[in-house]
């Protein structure tokens, strides 16, 4: 019986060859009147980056750096969201304050000690996001004085009627890149001042 498989021809890699760089399908450049979806990290297309609550914060920061994100969803063993933690949470005053209050070393600080717990996370409804513009999202983030926002929708599983699931994530850093602005995550007021000026000039 003849072999149904055939080896492919191989070639030497050509000089100057590059590679496809993965992206989530978002447009590189947007304007404030673009659909909000053009600036949302859609978790139907991109795997959410998560961390366990008992993870040391330095390990969580390294995970962010490796994944090139500035926010991790804090989840339990059943993938239910317990909270979220951002690079700002780890790099600014929260760990210092916690260490002083709890009288522990920096190495003993875990994600659960400084994360924003689930019952303090404000979210957007996807039904509203679908009708919104990038400018609407920028204004929403500015008014909330936040760098990130989660968008939720009803869970598809009929057995979980009434439950919600996080569909997407908005980030001022991501929006800034797409607007052509170099917005750094530090300096909250400066970031929103730049975005506000852009809003007013639109």
Strand content: 15-25%
Task: List the strand order in the largest sheet.
Answer: 1-8-7-6
Instruction: Quickly give the structural class.
Output: alpha/beta
> Could you say how many structural domains there are in total?
1
CATH topology: CBS-domain
In the CATH hierarchy, what is the class? Answer: Alpha Beta
Rg, nearest Å: 21 Å
Mean pLDDT: 84
Kindly state the percentage of residues in helix.
25-40%
**N-to-C order of helices and strands:** EEHEEHHHEEHHEEHH
Regions with little confidence, pLDDT below 50 for 5+ residues: 184-190
Task: Tell me the span between the first and last alpha carbons.
Answer: 70 Å
Architecture overview:
Strands 1-8-7-6 form a four-stranded mixed beta sheet. A hairpin with a 5-residue loop joins strand 3 and strand 4. Helix 6 packs antiparallel against helix 8. It is built from eight helices and eight strands. The chain starts with 40 loop residues before the first strand and ends with a helix. By secondary structure, it is of the alpha/beta class. It has one domain: CBS-domain, CATH 3.10.580.10. Mean pLDDT is 84; it is low at 184-190.
Keywords:
4-stranded mixed sheet, 202 residues, alpha/beta, single chain, CBS-domain
Secondary-structure map:
Elements (H helix, E strand, L loop, with lengths): L40 E2 L7 E2 L5 H11 L3 E5 L5 E6 H5 L1 H10 L8 H4 L1 E2 L5 E3 H4 L4 H11 L3 E7 L9 E8 H8 L8 H14 L1
Parallel strand pairs: 2-3, 6-7
Antiparallel strand pairs: 1-8, 3-4, 4-5, 7-8
């Amino acid at each position: 019986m003849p072999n149904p498989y055939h080896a492919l021809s191989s070639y030497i890699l050509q000089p100057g060859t590059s590679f496809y760089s993965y992206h989530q399908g978002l447009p590189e450049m947007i304007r404030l009147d673009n659909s909000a979806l053009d600036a949302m990290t859609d978790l139907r297309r991109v795997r959410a980056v998560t961390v366990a609550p008992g993870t040391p914060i330095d390990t969580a920061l390294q995970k962010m750096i490796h994944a090139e994100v500035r926010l991790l969803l804090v989840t339990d063993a059943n993938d239910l969201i317990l909270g979220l933690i951002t690079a700002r949470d780890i790099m600014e005053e929260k760990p210092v304050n916690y260490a002083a209050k709890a009288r522990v070393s920096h190495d003993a600080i875990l994600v659960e000690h400084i994360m924003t717990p689930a019952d303090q996370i404000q979210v957007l409804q996807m039904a509203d996001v679908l009708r919104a513009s990038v400018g609407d999202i920028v204004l929403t983030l500015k008014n909330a004085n936040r760098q990130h926002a989660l968008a939720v929708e009803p869970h598809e599983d009929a057995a979980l009627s009434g439950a919600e699931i996080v569909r997407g994530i908005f980030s001022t850093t991501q929006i800034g890149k797409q607007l052509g602005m170099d917005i750094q995550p530090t300096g909250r007021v400066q970031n929103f001042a730049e975005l506000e000026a852009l809003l007013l000039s639109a």
